[in-house]
Amino acid sequence: ETGATLETVPIPGFAPYAAAFDGRGRLWLASEAGELAVVDRGSSPPTVTRHLLNLACYEIYGIAVTDDDAILGSGFGCDQVFRFEPSTESVARLPTLPSTRAVAVDGDRAYVAHTDGRMSIVDPTQLAVLDTVDAWSLGLSPLESIGVAADSVGTVWMFSTHGAPNDRGVATRIDPVTRSVLAQLPVGVGPHTQGDATGRGLPPRAGA
Fold it and tell me: In this structure, how many other beta carbons lie within 10 angstroms of the beta carbon of residue 159?
């Protein structure tokens, strides 16, 4: 409520780039160097566990947590999505379209943004590409697509830094069932997003 810092948890030598909470309230962090760290606030002081992943590329760009608390991630320097199982320390990899950026999970589906304006629909449990949506539609040509998020009404938003007039960014709304582009909204210059861009993961406010 006040914006004051409540607690600081040091992780020496770790430079977080992406983050997500799991179902147990633990905070997962990813570094571009191919390392994950999880902060557990269930003890005092909070504990930190680090996992160095054996990935073909060491530029983790985005992470999301599946319903069974596995970590789904993308690597900007590698054309793949990975699934990390914390209980077994195992990593599975899925080849995808080039240049994976953000990743979001919505139940039994995951969504992966690609730099060229396409979005992959992925089964996060079986780790399989189910379909691909091309956001070059409705007169706009999104490029540098760096963000993706599911909203509360079943649609998915992809955010691109280029594609609207005057070299502005664009937010594309996609129906993942019909694989169609519903709307494209010009936004500011060079937009960037990480994590839950739609606020879907926030708990409802009392009386809302």
Answer: 24
